Amino acid sequence: MTVLQMTADELQQFLARDFGQVAEDFTVERADGAGLCLRLRVADRHLRPGGTVSGPAMFGLADVAMYLAILARIGPVALAVTTNCSIDFMRKPVAGRDLLAEARVLKLGRVLAVGDVLIFSEGEGQPVARAGLTYSIPPK
């Protein structure tokens, strides 16, 4: 059984306190032993020409979702950083809907954490993107 060090509310507060520049874009929907669900509140600034959510906005969603999924397990370690990310854009997000990222920590070691993120348009069953990420965890 996975023991969480931070709840969804605590993660949301951490985001607001330490990453205020992007905190308003995201809502932590769920944090539990299975992982984390993060909502991107899609706004005009996230869109590319043609009205679809941009790749950089989806990358940011995947990165923040995995970061928070790791922090849920290790506690508020602001200096954990992304060391690798690979993202596949599989289909166009549905216009006018928020995106939801489902993040899972696959391996949590002392210095590295590895996980994956599936991104969905709200209300849709097929993912629009999939990302694999590795994070470096600073020594205590």
UniProtKB/TrEMBL annotation:
Gene Ontology terms, MF aspect: acyl-CoA hydrolase activity
Pfam families on file: 4HBT (PF03061)
Keywords: Hydrolase
Organism: Fuscibacter oryzae
Sequence ranges assigned to domain Thioesterase in this UniProt record: 50-126
Statement: the UniProt record of this protein carries the keyword Hydrolase: yes
Alphabetical list of SUPFAM superfamilies matching this protein: Thioesterase/thiol ester dehydrase-isomerase (SSF54637)
Gene3D superfamilies attached to this UniProt entry: Hotdog Thioesterase
Protein name, entry field: PaaI family thioesterase
Cited CDD domains: PaaI_thioesterase (cd03443)
